[in-house]
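Task card 7
Instruction: Convert sequence to structure tokens.
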Amino acid sequence: MRKSLFLTSVIISIITFLCLLLIISDPLITAILSSNSIFSELLIYLPGRELYLHSFIVIVFLLSGLTFSQLTFQCQKAERKADKKDRELLILHSTASISASSLDVNDFLNDVLNELLSYLGANYGFVYLIKKDTGKAVLFADAEAPVRLKKALANIPLDHPVVVNITEMNGLSKKIKRTHVLEVESDLFPEMDMDKIIAIPMVARKAVTGFFMFSMRQQVQLSEEDAYVLESVGKLAGITVENIQLLENTTKAYEELKSLDKMKDEFVSNVTHELKTPLISIKGYSEIMYEGMLGDLNEKQKQGMKVIVSNSERLNRLIESLLHMNAFQFKKQHVFSPLSLGDVMESTIKSLSLKIEEKGMILNTNYEKSLHFIYGNTELLKHLFIYLLDNAIKFSPYGSRVGIWAYEESGSMHVEISDNGIGIPENQIPKVFERFYQVDGSMTRNYGGNGLGLYLAKNIVEIHKGEIWLESREGVGTKSHVLLPLYDENGQVVCKQVHTLADTPVSL
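Output:
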């Protein structure tokens, strides 16, 4: 482009010169100048008019050449400036692209180092990460550096003038407008045998975390634009390195937590099995003694045995809930078969009969024993309704009513368990199915429990491809809903209507 502009200027100047010569040699122009016209009169008073005319032609030629030369120079200058801007944008774009796609610190810093090496035209470069615990800037990566230099500059003390200047410059730049690029005198690193050294800090969260260092054989003058571009690259590199390290630390911590969580689950499983073994004997013998099978008991003895039976049953439910939690965590397979929901409900009520009697509860049931079969696991469904009925009893006042209804609805068995207890705050309802969540989780809470009941109930319902939801008003009571698919005579699960939150009444 530069050559074409120069040739164009020369060609136009030559054409202008030839045109002027043709005009002067034209007969008409000669006649005008030699006649008695105004031009001829004027030329009488100009001695050596031919000389003036030719001088005029030369001046026009020179001015044309100078004008075109100036235009050529301006075009070349604009072209150089555009090329420089292109290089600046290219290094910024390359660094941003590398930053967006890198998940490894080593790969990222090596790629950025090579980009900067090409941009600066440096002979070789280094990347250092500052380790405050060791008091050194440690060499992390290099590009085309001799082996002897890598060994000599493997560690730079943090009190070295270069490192001190970089950190101080970062602090000063917050108060005054200056770039984060340091031009280091070569005598600070005599081993490098270079005329000039350039250091670019990596900054993250207003702190220097490392720096790039390049060795230049020629005296390269950095413009203000160059300095700002290098500063931007340094900041982007610092932030990216920090983000990658945070990701690595988070991933490592997550893996450790997963391992600890697995160990915890295995420990809980082992402990609960060990607790369950002696509890079976305690519970069995206490029930036999309470029923008088080992001899008659007086009222005080019977009352004492009743307390033992009640608490052993409570402990058994707690252990069962922990075992179920682990079974769900390890995705244990359960055996399913057609079963009568009426039998499951009767067994549930029997398991909680002592607790119902202790609180003087009035239990209202409304379901037929010959209900349509459902397809499921008897033990799991029994525990599902134990969790729901136990909550209804636990959170209801002494002598209040608890209701159980079961009926067919759109290809499903709909079970409702209601109470007139304390209810649940509206903003807490979405959270009650979370593991270990309790509405009153304080150490001084009035009600016992481990926060697993509704969590396990939801898991049991999901295993049976059903649905569960709650209606509750604080101070009024709670109604639990369970939908379970029916089982037809051909051994198929009947398709059920999907229940959505929109179908759920807002109040009791």
